[in-house]
Amino acid sequence: MAVCVRQSRNSIINHVKAKMGLLGLTCLSSSMPSLNTDHRTLSAASLAKDLRNQNSVLENKPTLYRTRRFDSTKPHQRSGVQSNVASSQFLDFPGGKVAFTSEMRFISESPKERIPCYRVLDDDGQLIEGGINVSKEIAVKMYSDMATLQTMDTIFYDAQRQGRISFYLTTIGEEAINIASAAALTIDDFVVPQYREPGVLLWRGFTLQQFANQCFSNRGDDCRGRQMPVHYGSKKLNYLTVASTIASQLPHAVGVAYSLKMDGKDACAVTYFGDGGSSEGDFHAALNFAAVTEAPVLFICRNNGWAISTPTSDQFRSDGIVVRGEAYGVQSIRVDGNDTLALYSAVRAAREMAICEQRPILIEAMTYRVGHHSTSDDSTKYRPVDEIELWRSARDPITRFRKWIESNGWWSSEAESELRSNVRKQLLDAIQVAETTEKPPLVDMFTDVYDAVPSNLSEQEKWLRETIKIHPQDYPSDFPL
Amino acid sequence: MATIFQGLGGAGAAAAAALTKSFNSKKLLLPSSRRSLAERKASSLLVVRSDGSVNLNLGSSNGRARRVDQLITNAVATKADTSSASSASKPGHELLLFEALREGLEEEMDRDPHVCVMGEDVGHLGGSYKVSEGLAEKYGDLRVLDTPIAENSFTGMGIGAAVTGLRPIVEGMNMGFLLLAFNQISNICGMIHYTSGGQFHVPIVIRGPGGVGRQLGAEHSQRLESYFQSIPGIQMVACSTPYNAKGLMKAAIRSENPVILFEHVLLYNLKERIPDEEYICNLEEAEMVRPGEHVTILTYSRMRYHAMQAAKTLVNKGYDPEVIDIRSLKPFDLHMIGNSVKKTHRVLIVEECMRAGGIGASLIAAITENFHDYLDAPVVCLSSQDVPTPYAGTLEEWTIVQPAQIVRAVEQLCQKLQ
């Protein structure tokens, strides 16, 4: 943490200098020592507070140096100070100095080479280089949670096919993204998911029974039967309830980060989205906002190649999503999304940066959506079966990680079969319990629309109850009232 | 601010600020370049008092100042003579409606550190109608946040902040821009408390200026209350006087539900004396503006003043109209409305939104469903024409309901039974 403090103190100063630099004022150097002395014993919490206060610290100086926000309304003053710089070399305008060039050159639409992908485990699960700092406990938990997630997906998917639940969508192929990122976070980091991240909840302690209850929309459902299957949510585990709308959660994450920033918490906001979601307007605005407000938020993109039937080549023409970070002033990294350890270390590092430096980070995890988009989709209609099979078997992230933990002596085939059969049994039990649990009562249709039930809704409920009383045969018999 | 500039809101205030702070006024208006040229030119300085008198200081040599005068006079011709609207005690302080909003906002920000403001130009510029002026200097520009231009996204940001404990006030620079935020307001803001099983709630306030009258053109004269009224999970209120503006602002901030507060572009300069003591207005209550016996006139926002002006004429003709400012657009205060209907048996709705699918349409349905037996005549609804709001002053004036039409409607309604 000490390293982080030092870095971030410098970054505050560099930050302020960069913004104030154009004013090129010598008085600023006299204000710098005071910043240093005041913040010698920084903690992350006071850091955020000081970022708020830096405005007030500088406010005591004459209005010229107020805050960067006010700079842009004083261009005439700013240019007056630039006397020692040859004005013919730079264009000085709101937003900073820009050098001139007499060569007309269009910037290429894509880099010569694609941004490389960070990975530490090769296809056979062997470390490529260096040591990764992850304990046996965490590694084994990561593996078992990935295996659990995979088993849960298989069983619930089959349950949908059997008609026991109405809808489901799997995370097959993206288990590493789910679990490794969750493992790199703390419980205080607030997660704002898309819908393909139940693994994060699993890591944090959501039970298999809770998953089943939500899918079956029974009385035990945390959402009280009001959302579709896989739309999990848990305030206790700091995981915002999934909404079906694509990318609408990205601005929410910025708002959450803004809230954490105001409170000076040692936590960040984390949000997930897919390659398709990155086309939505909310993606662009959220990245932009996060950069401008310097909000500590991790944007994790699961680039799995497909948005239902739309391949990425029809979704965008940029080099994936990672290059967009620079466009908004956000640091970004591309990671092999099927490499558990690479993800773990990247998210870990990103989290540190986000919180200590109060900035957003964009992580693009390259992976493949092995399953169909959802149970309403048959992906063999628009993509080759052998492509799916390749990624399902040869590039399975779970198998790859298993090879690594086995090579460390932390796992064995006995442990494997024990885990799998154990989880399978638990899931089947959970489904059975969920299926037979009562459905939510009628009153839950009308509560929680507002904080208190208003009169028009009580009237509607009364009317409905009367109708049911008179015509019970038209309503399901297992409908609790 | 010097007293001569008291009557300013919007472009006028910008001009005033330009004089006092030696900014180049054109530069200051750059951030709000979204507003039409007409508005920027209409910088005549006006002091509009709620007792109907208008002090016109022709700051601009623009000939249309006279027409502006005519239009503004129509807005607030009648004295607000009810004790419920103004303070009971004579001491108190006078201020304009936008200042009342700001006072309410500031009091709540002082009271609760979780309250924050976000929107375009709310910080540095103090809001397009100066409602948040001075707040960024006082609370810092993180707590009064200037956002980039992406309504859906800063509304979403407000929602995200709200679910983690803050109480944001999101300002739409003009209510019409919030059409871009419809996804967030409808799909998440109104829903997340329900779909999360009560785990997450959204104590957000979404507010902004709307309505017709400043010749802002069709896109900037939207009345969003009609579009939002079906969204479950939100509440909607419309303020019309400095007193209820402050009270509703405070109540909305304290509410645990998402509240949309509708303000009107022409009402920001209304002057009224309000109490010094702290008070809030009930979000779900209507306001009795003028008790009467013959007909119930239901109205809200700016149309209240047209109704009151018509009431003056009607009284001279021997009618006794009861005027109720419904204030709460979702849900309706059917208690007060019902009592009134039971007394007068005739209802006239005067609203500024469009006829098709408007607030009046829902109100007619609610009244007919609940109080049919008490009605002596069908409910009459006067709304704006179902046309995009034209720019030309004369056309704009006649897209909305004028006092003469209200008088005529009441005469017809009452004569039906004679």
TrEMBL record, chain A:
Entry keyword annotation includes Nucleotide-binding: no
UniProt KW keywords: Metal-binding, Mitochondrion, Oxidoreductase, Potassium, Transit peptide
Protein localization: Mitochondrion matrix
GO molecular function, one term: metal ion binding
Domain Dehydrogenase E1 component intervals: 146-441
Reaction(s) this enzyme catalyzes, per UniProt: N(6)-[(R)-lipoyl]-L-lysyl-[protein] + 3-methyl-2-oxobutanoate + H(+) = N(6)-[(R)-S(8)-2-methylpropanoyldihydrolipoyl]-L-lysyl-[protein] + CO2
Cofactor(s) the protein needs: thiamine diphosphate
Enzyme type, top EC level: oxidoreductase
CDD domains: TPP_E1_PDC_ADC_BCADC
Pfam families documented for this protein: E1_dh
InterPro entries associated with the record: Alpha-ketoacid_DH_E1_comp, DH_E1, THDP-binding
Enzyme Commission number: 1.2.4.4
Entry GO terms, CC: mitochondrial matrix
Record GO biological process: branched-chain amino acid catabolic process
Family: Belongs to the BCKDHA family.
Subunit note: Heterotetramer of alpha and beta chains.
Name of the protein in its database record: 3-methyl-2-oxobutanoate dehydrogenase (2-methylpropanoyl-transferring)
Organism: Salix brachista
UniProtKB/TrEMBL annotation, chain B:
Subcellular location, record wording: Plastid, Chloroplast
SMART domains xrefs: Transket_pyr
GO terms, molecular function: metal ion binding; pyruvate dehydrogenase (acetyl-transferring) activity
Disulfide bond as UniProt keyword: no
UniProt cofactor(s): thiamine diphosphate
Enzyme class: oxidoreductase
Catalytic activities: N(6)-[(R)-lipoyl]-L-lysyl-[protein] + pyruvate + H(+) = N(6)-[(R)-S(8)-acetyldihydrolipoyl]-L-lysyl-[protein] + CO2
Purpose of the protein: The pyruvate dehydrogenase complex catalyzes the overall conversion of pyruvate to acetyl-CoA and CO(2). It contains multiple copies of three enzymatic components: pyruvate dehydrogenase (E1), dihydrolipoamide acetyltransferase (E2) and lipoamide dehydrogenase (E3).
Subunit structure, as described in the record: Tetramer of 2 alpha and 2 beta subunits.
Protein name per its UniProtKB record: pyruvate dehydrogenase (acetyl-transferring)
